[in-house]
């Protein structure tokens, strides 16, 4: 089921999401809905709070070309990350980011180049993942959502002011 996306400046985006304790069917339904919603909106990542659920859950699906399935974001290529913890962060990276909660706006953001993360999958099994490329950026962006932060908060004051002005004009 496709769920509604929470759009900036909705206050829910400021919520600090809670640890997942129950790895049950309602969590699985949430993950499945998040995938459907993300693909429907042409996103590469989504945090649960973006569909109004304040749990430490995020998904990432970096498009690939799957000729057999005729789909570039097959479900089995979805990384489901629950209760993530940073183990290592190093280097610097700058990448143009966007967000389904700030539709149509893209800007360069400073992040760590490489991250190493411990997380749980939908069955509660622990895993470790590390990356120094686009996945690293996406994970950092989505973990920010779990802590109530949106990428525009990382912009310079000047760019932020310009954004807020543009955003207001766009909506009126
Ligand atoms: Co986002």
UniProtKB/TrEMBL annotation:
Question: Keyword Hydrolase, does the record have it?
Answer: yes
Q: Which Enzyme Commission number(s) are listed?
A: 3.5.1.88
Top enzyme class, one word, equals hydrolase
User: Which cofactor(s) are needed, names only?
Assistant: Fe(2+)
One example of a Gene Ontology biological process annotation: translation
The record's comment on cofactor binding reads: Binds 1 Fe(2+) ion.
Which gene is transcribed and translated to give this protein? def
Single Gene Ontology MF annotation: metal ion binding
Supply the source organism for this entry: Sulfurovum sp. enrichment culture clone C5
- UniProt protein name: Peptide deformylase
